[in-house]
Amino acid sequence: MVSVVEILEAISDVKSLKLFNTIATKGGNSEDLSVQLKLSRKEYYSRMSRLMKTGLVKRKNGKHFLTAFGKVVYDAQVTIRKAVESYWKLKAIDSIDLSDEITVKERDKLIQTLLDDVEIREILSKHAN
């Protein structure tokens, strides 16, 4: 069984993450992917090997695609990217959470106002203090 650390290591550098995201959104064969991402042969194959060994990517008829597991990891990575884009709004929510002067209802209303992404709002609601 593969570990969380192995999964994160497989997509931990910029080029590997771009490769993973490109496969998720467009798919493609080895030549197209390596040319599109400007990866050397060695860079491409070492990254693709990690993605395949961790079960994120499979190849069929010369084309690469995400496995069911890879789709779940891709979706989690998209959520992380959205959180990064909302970093300062999330920091503001943290600051407000430190205050004893705001009610839970006011906090929820503030989160609804500050954050556009429904998934991030749901995560914060689920983990409310």
Give your account of this protein's structure:
By secondary structure, this protein is mainly alpha-helical. 68% of the residues lie in helices and 6% in strands. The protein has eight helices and two strands. It has helices at 4-10, 14-25, 30-36, 41-53, 68-85, 87-97, 104-114, 118-126; strands at residues 57-60, 63-66. It has a two-stranded antiparallel sheet. Helix 2 (14-25) crosses helix 4 (41-53) and helix 6 runs antiparallel to helix 7. The longest helix is centred in the middle third of the chain and has 18 residues, at 68-85. The radius of gyration is 19 Å and the shape is elongated. It starts with a helix and ends with a helix.
Distance between the ends: 34 Å
Quick one: how many beta strands?
Answer: 2
Instruction: Please tell me the overall pLDDT.
Output: 92
* Largest sheet, strands/sense/barrel: 2 strands, antiparallel
List low-pLDDT spans: none
Strand content: 5-15%
List the helices and strands and how they pair.
Elements: H1 4-10, H2 14-25, H3 30-36, H4 41-53, E1 57-60, E2 63-66, H5 68-85, H6 87-97, H7 104-114, H8 118-126
